[in-house]
Design brief:
Elements: H1 17-35, E1 46-49, E2 56-58, E3 74-76, H2 95-104, E4 110-114, H3 117-124, H4 134-137, E5 143-146, H5 158-165, E6 170-173, E7 177-182, H6 185-206, H7 217-232, H8 236-245
Parallel strand pairs: 5-6
Antiparallel strand pairs: 1-2, 1-4, 2-3, 4-7, 6-7
Protein backbone atom coordinates (compact mmCIF):
# COMPACT_ATOMS: atom_id res chain seq x y z
CA UNK A 1 0.00 0.00 0.00
CA UNK A 2 1.26 3.46 -0.86
CA UNK A 3 1.66 6.27 1.66
CA UNK A 4 -1.75 7.58 2.68
CA UNK A 5 -0.53 10.63 4.60
CA UNK A 6 -1.29 12.94 1.68
CA UNK A 7 -3.46 15.89 2.82
CA UNK A 8 -7.10 15.17 2.06
CA UNK A 9 -7.57 18.17 -0.24
CA UNK A 10 -11.13 18.19 -1.57
CA UNK A 11 -12.15 15.14 0.47
CA UNK A 12 -15.89 14.87 1.05
CA UNK A 13 -17.01 14.73 4.67
CA UNK A 14 -18.78 11.41 4.04
CA UNK A 15 -15.73 9.77 2.43
CA UNK A 16 -14.43 6.96 4.64
CA UNK A 17 -10.76 6.40 5.33
CA UNK A 18 -10.87 3.20 3.28
CA UNK A 19 -12.41 4.96 0.29
CA UNK A 20 -9.93 7.83 0.51
CA UNK A 21 -7.02 5.38 0.63
CA UNK A 22 -8.35 3.70 -2.52
CA UNK A 23 -8.78 7.08 -4.22
CA UNK A 24 -5.18 8.03 -3.43
CA UNK A 25 -3.90 4.72 -4.75
CA UNK A 26 -5.99 4.92 -7.93
CA UNK A 27 -4.88 8.49 -8.64
CA UNK A 28 -1.29 7.29 -8.25
CA UNK A 29 -2.01 4.52 -10.76
CA UNK A 30 -3.29 7.05 -13.30
CA UNK A 31 -0.17 9.16 -12.77
CA UNK A 32 2.05 6.11 -13.27
CA UNK A 33 0.38 5.22 -16.56
CA UNK A 34 0.97 8.81 -17.68
CA UNK A 35 4.57 8.75 -16.37
CA UNK A 36 5.39 5.68 -18.46
CA UNK A 37 3.75 7.13 -21.57
CA UNK A 38 0.96 4.56 -21.79
CA UNK A 39 -1.96 6.99 -22.03
CA UNK A 40 -4.25 7.59 -24.98
CA UNK A 41 -4.73 11.33 -24.31
CA UNK A 42 -8.05 11.68 -22.41
CA UNK A 43 -9.33 8.24 -23.43
CA UNK A 44 -9.18 4.80 -21.79
CA UNK A 45 -9.93 4.01 -18.16
CA UNK A 46 -8.61 2.54 -14.97
CA UNK A 47 -11.43 1.48 -12.65
CA UNK A 48 -11.35 0.24 -9.07
CA UNK A 49 -14.14 -1.39 -7.09
CA UNK A 50 -15.15 0.08 -3.74
CA UNK A 51 -15.11 -2.96 -1.43
CA UNK A 52 -18.50 -4.24 -0.33
CA UNK A 53 -20.41 -2.17 -2.90
CA UNK A 54 -21.46 -2.24 -6.53
CA UNK A 55 -19.73 1.10 -7.07
CA UNK A 56 -16.44 1.90 -8.75
CA UNK A 57 -13.99 4.76 -9.03
CA UNK A 58 -12.99 5.96 -12.48
CA UNK A 59 -11.53 9.02 -14.20
CA UNK A 60 -13.64 12.06 -15.13
CA UNK A 61 -13.93 12.18 -18.91
CA UNK A 62 -11.95 15.01 -20.46
CA UNK A 63 -9.10 15.17 -17.96
CA UNK A 64 -5.55 14.16 -18.72
CA UNK A 65 -4.27 11.35 -16.52
CA UNK A 66 -1.86 13.83 -14.90
CA UNK A 67 -4.88 15.90 -13.82
CA UNK A 68 -6.56 13.06 -11.93
CA UNK A 69 -6.68 13.58 -8.16
CA UNK A 70 -8.16 11.48 -5.35
CA UNK A 71 -10.95 14.03 -4.97
CA UNK A 72 -12.01 14.35 -8.62
CA UNK A 73 -12.32 10.63 -9.32
CA UNK A 74 -15.93 9.72 -10.07
CA UNK A 75 -17.99 7.15 -8.22
CA UNK A 76 -20.10 5.21 -10.75
CA UNK A 77 -22.22 2.08 -11.10
CA UNK A 78 -21.48 -0.81 -13.47
CA UNK A 79 -22.96 1.15 -16.38
CA UNK A 80 -20.66 4.12 -15.73
CA UNK A 81 -23.42 6.37 -14.36
CA UNK A 82 -22.50 8.75 -11.55
CA UNK A 83 -23.87 7.81 -8.14
CA UNK A 84 -22.80 10.98 -6.33
CA UNK A 85 -22.56 14.63 -7.42
CA UNK A 86 -19.54 15.81 -9.38
CA UNK A 87 -18.91 18.80 -11.67
CA UNK A 88 -17.26 16.36 -14.07
CA UNK A 89 -18.95 14.08 -16.55
CA UNK A 90 -18.70 10.31 -16.61
CA UNK A 91 -18.01 8.34 -19.77
CA UNK A 92 -20.42 5.37 -19.70
CA UNK A 93 -18.91 4.04 -22.94
CA UNK A 94 -15.85 2.82 -21.05
CA UNK A 95 -17.98 0.64 -18.80
CA UNK A 96 -19.21 -1.52 -21.65
CA UNK A 97 -15.83 -3.15 -21.01
CA UNK A 98 -15.04 -2.33 -17.38
CA UNK A 99 -18.53 -2.80 -15.97
CA UNK A 100 -19.07 -6.25 -17.42
CA UNK A 101 -15.76 -7.51 -16.00
CA UNK A 102 -16.44 -6.01 -12.57
CA UNK A 103 -19.94 -7.48 -12.50
CA UNK A 104 -18.86 -10.98 -13.45
CA UNK A 105 -15.50 -11.43 -11.72
CA UNK A 106 -15.28 -11.24 -7.93
CA UNK A 107 -11.52 -11.79 -8.21
CA UNK A 108 -11.05 -8.60 -10.25
CA UNK A 109 -11.33 -5.32 -8.36
CA UNK A 110 -9.19 -3.20 -10.70
CA UNK A 111 -9.35 -3.08 -14.51
CA UNK A 112 -6.86 -1.18 -16.66
CA UNK A 113 -7.38 -0.61 -20.39
CA UNK A 114 -4.60 0.63 -22.67
CA UNK A 115 -3.63 0.56 -26.30
CA UNK A 116 0.01 1.55 -26.49
CA UNK A 117 1.73 1.20 -29.85
CA UNK A 118 3.40 -2.07 -28.90
CA UNK A 119 0.27 -3.60 -27.35
CA UNK A 120 -1.84 -2.53 -30.34
CA UNK A 121 0.69 -4.10 -32.70
CA UNK A 122 0.46 -7.43 -30.85
CA UNK A 123 -3.35 -7.18 -30.83
CA UNK A 124 -3.22 -6.80 -34.62
CA UNK A 125 -1.29 -10.03 -35.20
CA UNK A 126 -3.11 -13.35 -35.54
CA UNK A 127 -0.68 -15.10 -33.16
CA UNK A 128 -1.15 -12.51 -30.43
CA UNK A 129 1.32 -12.80 -27.57
CA UNK A 130 3.99 -15.47 -27.80
CA UNK A 131 5.53 -16.86 -24.63
CA UNK A 132 9.18 -17.25 -25.55
CA UNK A 133 10.71 -14.30 -23.69
CA UNK A 134 11.01 -13.64 -19.96
CA UNK A 135 7.89 -11.46 -19.80
CA UNK A 136 5.79 -13.35 -22.33
CA UNK A 137 6.42 -16.61 -20.47
CA UNK A 138 4.83 -15.10 -17.35
CA UNK A 139 1.60 -14.60 -19.34
CA UNK A 140 1.30 -18.23 -20.39
CA UNK A 141 -2.30 -19.43 -20.04
CA UNK A 142 -3.48 -16.03 -18.78
CA UNK A 143 -4.52 -14.36 -22.05
CA UNK A 144 -7.93 -14.37 -23.69
CA UNK A 145 -8.69 -12.93 -27.14
CA UNK A 146 -11.78 -11.03 -28.25
CA UNK A 147 -12.63 -10.32 -31.89
CA UNK A 148 -12.94 -6.66 -32.85
CA UNK A 149 -16.54 -5.45 -33.16
CA UNK A 150 -15.82 -1.73 -33.54
CA UNK A 151 -15.51 0.88 -30.81
CA UNK A 152 -16.49 -0.73 -27.49
CA UNK A 153 -19.71 1.18 -26.81
CA UNK A 154 -22.61 -1.23 -26.75
CA UNK A 155 -24.03 -3.38 -23.96
CA UNK A 156 -24.79 -6.19 -26.40
CA UNK A 157 -21.05 -6.93 -26.65
CA UNK A 158 -20.62 -7.45 -22.91
CA UNK A 159 -21.43 -11.17 -22.78
CA UNK A 160 -19.17 -11.92 -25.73
CA UNK A 161 -16.27 -10.06 -24.07
CA UNK A 162 -16.81 -12.04 -20.88
CA UNK A 163 -16.84 -15.30 -22.82
CA UNK A 164 -13.57 -14.30 -24.48
CA UNK A 165 -12.00 -13.46 -21.11
CA UNK A 166 -13.18 -16.65 -19.40
CA UNK A 167 -11.24 -17.18 -16.18
CA UNK A 168 -8.19 -15.26 -17.40
CA UNK A 169 -6.84 -11.87 -16.31
CA UNK A 170 -5.69 -10.42 -19.64
CA UNK A 171 -8.08 -9.73 -22.51
CA UNK A 172 -6.54 -8.88 -25.87
CA UNK A 173 -9.05 -6.81 -27.81
CA UNK A 174 -7.98 -7.79 -31.30
CA UNK A 175 -7.15 -4.90 -33.64
CA UNK A 176 -7.49 -2.61 -30.63
CA UNK A 177 -5.61 -3.03 -27.31
CA UNK A 178 -5.82 -4.83 -23.96
CA UNK A 179 -7.63 -4.90 -20.66
CA UNK A 180 -5.97 -6.38 -17.58
CA UNK A 181 -7.68 -7.09 -14.27
CA UNK A 182 -6.54 -8.14 -10.83
CA UNK A 183 -7.67 -8.30 -7.22
CA UNK A 184 -6.30 -4.83 -6.40
CA UNK A 185 -4.55 -1.83 -7.93
CA UNK A 186 -0.90 -2.81 -7.26
CA UNK A 187 -1.39 -6.27 -8.77
CA UNK A 188 -3.26 -4.90 -11.77
CA UNK A 189 -0.50 -2.36 -12.37
CA UNK A 190 2.20 -5.03 -12.10
CA UNK A 191 0.29 -7.17 -14.61
CA UNK A 192 -0.03 -4.21 -16.96
CA UNK A 193 3.71 -3.53 -16.66
CA UNK A 194 4.48 -7.19 -17.46
CA UNK A 195 2.14 -7.18 -20.48
CA UNK A 196 3.65 -3.94 -21.77
CA UNK A 197 7.22 -5.28 -21.41
CA UNK A 198 6.21 -8.51 -23.18
CA UNK A 199 4.76 -6.48 -26.05
CA UNK A 200 7.88 -4.31 -26.33
CA UNK A 201 10.24 -7.29 -26.38
CA UNK A 202 8.11 -9.21 -28.87
CA UNK A 203 7.86 -6.25 -31.25
CA UNK A 204 11.62 -5.72 -31.20
CA UNK A 205 12.42 -9.43 -31.53
CA UNK A 206 10.09 -9.81 -34.49
CA UNK A 207 11.84 -6.88 -36.23
CA UNK A 208 15.25 -8.61 -36.02
CA UNK A 209 16.64 -11.18 -38.42
CA UNK A 210 17.00 -14.76 -37.27
CA UNK A 211 14.79 -17.33 -35.60
CA UNK A 212 13.60 -16.95 -32.03
CA UNK A 213 14.60 -19.48 -29.38
CA UNK A 214 11.33 -21.15 -28.53
CA UNK A 215 10.35 -22.22 -25.04
CA UNK A 216 8.36 -25.39 -24.33
CA UNK A 217 4.87 -24.98 -22.94
CA UNK A 218 5.96 -26.58 -19.66
CA UNK A 219 8.44 -23.76 -19.03
CA UNK A 220 5.81 -21.13 -19.85
CA UNK A 221 3.37 -22.72 -17.43
CA UNK A 222 6.02 -22.91 -14.73
CA UNK A 223 6.91 -19.22 -15.19
CA UNK A 224 3.25 -18.19 -15.06
CA UNK A 225 2.58 -20.29 -11.95
CA UNK A 226 5.66 -18.96 -10.13
CA UNK A 227 4.73 -15.38 -10.99
CA UNK A 228 1.22 -15.88 -9.65
CA UNK A 229 2.58 -17.35 -6.44
CA UNK A 230 5.01 -14.45 -6.07
CA UNK A 231 2.34 -11.82 -6.69
CA UNK A 232 -0.45 -13.24 -4.56
CA UNK A 233 1.32 -14.91 -1.66
CA UNK A 234 3.33 -11.94 -0.38
CA UNK A 235 3.67 -8.15 -0.63
CA UNK A 236 5.81 -8.17 -3.79
CA UNK A 237 3.25 -6.21 -5.85
CA UNK A 238 2.72 -3.66 -3.06
CA UNK A 239 6.48 -3.02 -2.85
CA UNK A 240 6.71 -2.74 -6.64
CA UNK A 241 3.82 -0.28 -6.79
CA UNK A 242 5.19 1.83 -3.95
CA UNK A 243 8.61 1.95 -5.61
CA UNK A 244 7.06 3.12 -8.89
CA UNK A 245 5.05 5.81 -7.07
CA UNK A 246 8.29 7.15 -5.58
CA UNK A 247 9.48 7.79 -9.13
CA UNK A 248 6.63 10.25 -9.75
CA UNK A 249 7.28 13.99 -9.63
CA UNK A 250 6.81 15.42 -6.15
CA UNK A 251 4.61 18.24 -7.50
CA UNK A 252 2.08 16.01 -9.31
CA UNK A 253 -1.63 16.78 -8.92
CA UNK A 254 -2.79 15.62 -5.45
Amino acid sequence: MTDMTTPAQGRRADCSDAEWALRVQLADCYHLVAHFGWTETIFNHISARLPGTGHYLVNPFGLNYEEITPANLLKVDTRGHKVEPSPHDANPAGFALHGCIHEARDDIHCVIHTHTTEVSAIALKEEGFHHDDFYGAQLYGRVGYHAFEGITLFAEERERMLASLGDKHILVLRNHGIAVGEIDIPRAFFLLWTVQRAAEVQCLARSMAGADTRLPASIGQRCADLTQMLIHDNDFADKFFAAMVRRLPADRAR
